[in-house]
DNA sequence: CCGGGATTGGCAAACGTTTGCCAAGAGGTA
DNA sequence: TACCTCTTGGCAAACGTTTGCCAATCCCGG
């Protein structure tokens, strides 16, 4: 590797421009007005010398890093890359950087990740907690130190959060399935410790009680992977052979169910739907629920920077839409 | 938000333990031996006061951040989350954090992301460059400032890089297709400005020249999405109706091709293969090429930290395996 | 020509840590 | 006992920036 030039400091810019350090700092940041001629001269010197402000020095002084931490339960679930992307854009639009930590679906790792982010001095943390109960201590501990916003998955209603309404898409889903003649719907969740999965399950229960009051409630806990979806599908056909539609808590499970049921296209015996409208759903033509990720992201980032100023807890709920595809024809 | 405790500094720990700041620093970091009793006392004070070293202060002094930058061309291509995850694990194992930037397939954004990472003072950057030529300037500029390692996609052979061998999986693929009676293979790439896609295309050309010397070479440029795969598939059937196997430069394209050809399972007229063995390939039973992501990641992280010490450029090549599935039966 | 207010440059302190240097003490040897 | 070496604690400087405070200058009106 060729020798790396050492960095130009503000001191050298000041010397070059024949001004004091403070004037240079103010000219560059605009913290206070400077005489136009001087401003120009500073800009020119900085440009020519290739000066870039040292974020470490600045952070030490300002006690800000202009950086958001982002804790994700499982980056291999394709919903989260989409969410990350949206949050990154929203953050960039406000001049903030983000640093991502993957919890690997493990509350222990998640907790350590939170500590690490806080030690890294991020200004706030956005988190989709892994586990409804096991993540609670870590979350609250973190929230006692810096602003923390729960995104998508919320496990503590008291702390700030941004989420979607789970009921309305389930209503749309059930209505559609009913209209196409299905009567015996079964829900396959993730682990019941996943906040969103549990909410979807409860919404399903409510909606079903309305739509099919006499139908028994069929709910199966699943897992995180497509594999667990396959297993759940086997169990469903065996346990409740009447089932003519399976509502899944996310796309991974939906894909697994679809695989197990046989992937022949067109009208099929059992309708299947997923959740999150990931590219998986596109790939296998799975009906799914599209979350307004960009709005979620913008709201979350606003909340994070806002939380630094006023201390008002944030609670926002967005609506999402069902995207119907071949799997429910 | 409840009031946030302000941080405990090393000064307070020193006062509490009745020792000097430097002794505390050394006791905690182990930079120099301290008398066991003192070490114990320091540890106890630090623990009790809840002291955590301030990474900003430390970084200012040491001029290190113990953080790696990671520039990804497109986080919604599921190969990259897998790569990110692997790199995160490898980095964590060495006590390093990572900060991720998504280039959104745009060399402009990529360039800015690189600058931002460097401004953030990451110790080194791992990058999968977006564009074979348009990324070059930004890459070299960055490499002139801090250690930069190209991962997976390499566009400058002179700079450090970690990659896989593309030829051997293509050989396996072609051999398998040939053994199952296919004769008229067509390659569908991404844009020819994607380094890996181009390498795969060239490998395909070489291998085909060997295996089917009399067969004309059929190569189609594609795009980044499943959609472009669908379009490519239409073009292939129209332009080269004899085609009985399509080798795609990645899984997204493979999925699109599969969709367009009709997704009926079992032996089909045209065999299809993808690349990267993402969860998409699992979902649609697409034959694909599995890269040794964990090894890539470990090598890349080693290279990044190594580059700080010796200045030896790194060039490593790993082998990858074909995973055969229903799409090539 | 003087006084007062507004504007803007500079000094120096602070943010929290690590580390080179010095000196004090401990322990061993002659 | 005297001397030498080795260990280990403390002082203070440095990393690069922002900003509170003061002072100098300028402009304007009387």
Strand content of chain A: 5-15%
Provide the low-confidence segments of chain A as ranges: 263-267
- Helix proportion range of chain A: 40-55%
**Count of discrete alpha- or pi-helical segments spanning 4 or more residues of chain A:** 13
Instruction: Report, as a whole number of angstroms, the end-to-end distance of chain A.
Output: 59 Å
What is the 3D shape of chain A? Answer: elongated
Q: What Rg of chain A, in angstroms, do the CA atoms define?
A: 25 Å
Order of helices and strands of chain A: HHHHEHEHEHEEHEHEHEHEHEHEE
Q: Name the chain pair whose interface involves the most residues.
A: A-B, 59 and 59 residues
Structural class of chain A: alpha/beta
Q: Give the integer mean of the pLDDT values of chain A.
A: 92
Q: Give a short account of the largest sheet of chain A.
A: 6 strands, parallel
For the largest sheet of chain A, list the strands in their spatial order. 2-1-3-4-5-11
Oligomer: homodimer
What's the count of strands of chain A?
Answer: 12
């Amino acid at each position: 590797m060729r020798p790396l030039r050492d960095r130009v400091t503000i001191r050298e810019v000041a010397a070059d421009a024949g001004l004091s350090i403070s004037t240079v700092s103010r000219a560059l940041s605009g913290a206070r007005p400077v005489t136009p001629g001087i401003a120009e001269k500073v800009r020119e010197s900085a440009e020519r010398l290739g000066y870039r402000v040292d974020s470490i020095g600045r952070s030490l002084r300002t006690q800000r890093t202009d950086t958001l931490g982002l804790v994700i339960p499982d980056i291999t679930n394709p919903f989260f890359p989409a969410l990350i992307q949206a949050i990154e854009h929203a953050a960039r639009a406000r001049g903030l950087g983000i640093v991502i930590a993957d919890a690997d679906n493990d509350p222990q790792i998640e907790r350590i990740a939170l500590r690490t982010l806080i030690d890294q001095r991020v200004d706030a943390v956005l988190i989709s907690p892994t586990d409804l109960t096991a993540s609670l201590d870590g979350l609250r501990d973190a929230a006692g130190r810096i602003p923390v916003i729960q995104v998508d998955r919320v496990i503590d209603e008291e702390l700030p959060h941004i989420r979607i309404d789970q009921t309305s898409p389930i209503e749309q889903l059930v209505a559609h399935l009913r209209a196409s003649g299905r009567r015996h719907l079964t829900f396959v969740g993730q682990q019941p410790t996943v906040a969103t999965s549990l909410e979807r399950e409860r919404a399903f229960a409510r909606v079903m009680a309305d739509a099919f009051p006499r139908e028994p409630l069929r709910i199966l806990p699943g897992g995180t992977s497509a594999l667990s979806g396959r297993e759940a599908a086997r169990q469903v056909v065996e346990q409740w052979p009447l089932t003519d539609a399976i509502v899944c808590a996310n796309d991974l499970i939906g894909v697994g169910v679809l695989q197990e049921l046989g992937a022949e296209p067109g009208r099929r015996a059992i309708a299947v739907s997923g959740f999150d409208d990931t590219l998986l759903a596109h790939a296998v033509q799975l009906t799914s629920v599209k979350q307004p990720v960009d709005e979620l992201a913008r709201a979350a980032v606003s909340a994070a920077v806002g939380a630094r100023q006023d201390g008002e807890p944030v609670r926002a709920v967005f609506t999402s839409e069902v995207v119907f595809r071949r799997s429910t024809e």
